[in-house]
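User: Structure please.
Assistant: Input sequence and predicted structure:
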Amino acid sequence: MKTSDAEYPSDLVIQAAGVKPNTAWLKGTIDLDDRGWIETDEYLRTNVPDVYAMGDAVLAYSIPAQTKMPIALATVVRREARYVVDHIFENTPSVPFQGVVGSSALSVFDYHFASSGLNTTTAKKAGVTIKTSFYKDTLRPAYVPTEKGNPDVYVGLDFDPQTHKILGGAVLSTYDITAQENVIALAVQQGLRLEDLAQADFFFQPGFDRQWSLLNLAAQHALGEPEFTK
């Protein structure tokens, strides 16, 4: 890689420039914050009567952070739109917008990755104190050979160190375990604690899972419990 200063040997270069809302045309009409994000109340209403705002240029209410922050995802605007449709004919909506967790997934080379809620970076920006636990295991019981479809799997859990409330998490493997992230997202949305996830009742069949589910084990590990005998 060659820059204006020097050349650096590299196999891969990832350039992440970030984004900013394209909302300058709204200045003087719609209230914006100092970075240009559209400001809304708890009902997704702007300062202009009968004008709602939703989507990537609006700060979404984050359930784990309990504050508004940028969450540019199609899943977010779908939930915002459904909320507005349900309440648009009420003078004052009967309930505020619940908020979102913020979940996404992607594949990078041979790995599949998914995340939900807060991580160390977003928690710091939101002023939320979190603790992170990292867990590594195999997809199926240890007696299943690697060559028989038993790859390594990784789980990160982010939680409140005082209450153990789950605030985020991520999963990674060469096997597609991204659907596991839906469980973490639901745990964050429902305010579950590590203790709840550690004991949650999931199915077991050796061809699919473990005697204790991967997420059971990750939560037990975060609690400092002895490793499950395999």
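Strands lie at 60-62, 67-69, 103-108, 111-117, 131-138, 152-159, 166-173.
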